[in-house]
Design goal:
Elements: H1 4-14, E1 29-32, E2 35-38, H2 73-84, H3 91-106, H4 113-116, H5 119-126, H6 138-163, H7 179-195, H8 197-216, H9 222-241, H10 243-250, E3 258-266, E4 271-279
Antiparallel strand pairs: 1-2, 3-4
Helix pairs in contact: 1-6, 2-9, 5-7, 6-7, 6-9, 7-8, 7-9, 8-9
């Protein structure tokens, strides 16, 4: 089943959809007189010259929001190579078996992958809050993330419980594809599309580490991780391809004019909660 924290992330991003097409980037903050305040008067285009919110570029005009067949090449290759590992005695299947034998003897274990999988997502949404120039306004980033994670969960869980490949460690029949890897690569590709290749490369490094750790923890085989990476990348692209649609659907509609969400966590007692307030 989908992990609860992933669904919580998707829910938090989804509440931004009704205002995705019409709000200025009120998520950007500036330091003025020693106080952090929202900067609702400026955007930061490629020229670096501040412009009024009315001149913000809609996603319809940005390349990342338009489908091109070449965008499918990398994720399709990853998914196809990963799927070939399901064929007995294929080269990828043999590689997975050999890797599993080596990992089993090593007896390596860490829980870092359970937390690292969320890092690219946090970077995608949060980096723009620090003043780093983003290509889209904050609510658009949330809308893209919500769409991407719903797509990723539907595809990855649909395959998990259709293919029913056993895990290398426990034998539970939900190994293909790797959900942790899919989530991490979704965030990595979202980050790359939003902030460019340099920052995106760092996010991809984290996502790759998650995939490697899933193998070293003997939770997944190599082909599970490759397929998860492909699903994550294509899901992120779908998130941005859908932005022009959300602009049209929610144009002129504001369901939550004012909203405040405050998550709380108590790691010691493993208790988590979220409070929300809406002003209609």
């Amino acid at each position: 089943m989908p992990r609860p924290l992933t669904l919580l992330l998707a829910l938090l991003f989804a509440v931004a959809l009704p205002v995705a097409a019409q709000e200025p980037d009120t998520c950007r903050v500036s330091l003025e007189n020693g106080v952090l305040t929202p900067d609702t008067t400026r955007s930061f285009p490629e020229s670096g010259v501040p412009t009024p919110p009315s001149t913000l570029t809609l996603c319809n005009d940005h390349a990342s929001c338009h489908f091109h067949a070449r965008q499918l090449i990398a994720p399709a290759v990853l998914l196809a190579v990963g799927a070939s590992g399901l064929i007995h005695n294929s080269p990828i299947d043999k590689l997975s078996d050999a890797t599993h034998d080596g990992v089993k003897d090593w007896n390596f274990h860490t829980k870092a992958d359970n937390w690292l999988e969320y890092v690219p997502t946090v970077v995608h949404i949060g980096l723009g809050l620090t003043g780093v120039k983003a290509k889209h306004k904050c609510f658009d980033r949330c809308a893209a993330a919500a769409t991407a994670y719903v797509c990723m969960e539907v595809v990855s869980n649909g395959l998990k419980y259709t293919v029913r490949e056993p895990r290398p460690d426990t034998g539970a029949r939900n190994a293909f594809p790797s959900g942790h890897t899919a989530l991490a690569f979704t965030g990595a590709e979202l980050t790359r599309l939003e902030y460019g290749n340099a920052i995106g490369a760092a996010a991809y490094g984290v996502a790759t580490a998650v995939g490697v750790l899933r193998i070293l923890n003997d939770r997944h085989n190599v082909h599970d991780v490759l397929a998860g990476a492909g699903i994550g990348i294509i899901s992120a692209k779908v998130g941005y391809w859908m932005l022009p649609v959300w602009h049209k659907v929610f144009k002129g509609k504001t369901i939550f004019p004012a909203m405040s969400i405050v998550p709380t966590a108590d790691p010691i007692n493993r208790q988590y909660a979220m409070s929300a307030a809406f002003v209609m």
